[in-house]
Amino acid sequence: xxxxxxxxxxxxNDIEECAQLCAELGLRFIExxxxxxxxxxxxLSQDKLALVAQQYGIYYTIHLDENLNVADFNRRVAAAYCAxxxxxxxxxxxxxxxxxxxxxxxGVFFKLPERRVYLFDEYNxxxxxxxxxxxxxxxxxxxxxxxxxxxxxxxxxxxFQLRALDMLLxxxxxxxxxxxxxxxxxxxxDLPAILARVDRLRHMHIHDADQQHDxxxxxxxxxxxxxxxxxxxxxxxxxxxxxKTAVALRQSVKWLIAHDWFTPVETPPDxxxxxxxxxxxxxx
Length: 284
Hints:
This protein is an alpha/beta fold. Helices cover 38% and strands 16% of the residues. The protein has one domain: Divalent-metal-dependent TIM barrel enzymes (TIM Barrel). The chain has helices spanning 15-24, 46-56, 75-95, 119-122, 124-142, 159-168, 180-185, 191-195, 225-234, 246-258, and strands at residues 4-7, 29-33, 59-63, 99-103, 109-111, 116-118, 148-152, 174-179, 201-206, 238-241. Strand 7, helix 6 and strand 8 form a beta-alpha-beta unit.
């Protein structure tokens, strides 16, 4: 079973506006995007988020800041990012959010005449040590809670990133997010890496794409959406419909319904809290 959700949208300044649309479309959850200023950990009202979730019968996942770089060579910068993740884990625990989505930074590169050198590759021991420390701290903070930090593909994994990814996946609190649009615009280079680790796939970002553009309305690009959605169903993965406007989201939901991939859930009576389905992308 695929549980569908939506992202927090730029056009909505308040979580309740997002929740109203989420419930109207029969979706199960909202992915809180911490790139937006109103969704920073120190500005969020946990009580309000919990109340909105209860009122509209939804739950949350969390998308960390895309600039996140827990292995930055500047220790103060890295420490700030690690503290942000720790705050997000505590928020996820409070909200019963089952997924924290993160990007894996490639870091700075030097462009030499004959090749591009990534500093995380050149100074790989430091990079791996920092990520190992991050992994262990997250593992300790999450403990036995049903929270998974899912690493999202962006524009093709470098070899040093794959080594780091496998090291993170040594911990049970880490998993994978497959962003199908990112993979498509990158020429399909991420999918083999995901499929080689498919038992750790917990989360997906779905949107259509062509060779130049992603985050398109479902059905507007040239991707084999049925194939990707079959993968989501086989893995019991959650799926964020990651289009960027309310109009595009409505159109994408219509496509899913028309192609028999989605039956909207009925909003429960006011005051009845929906919790994430245990076993959906949780391995339990």
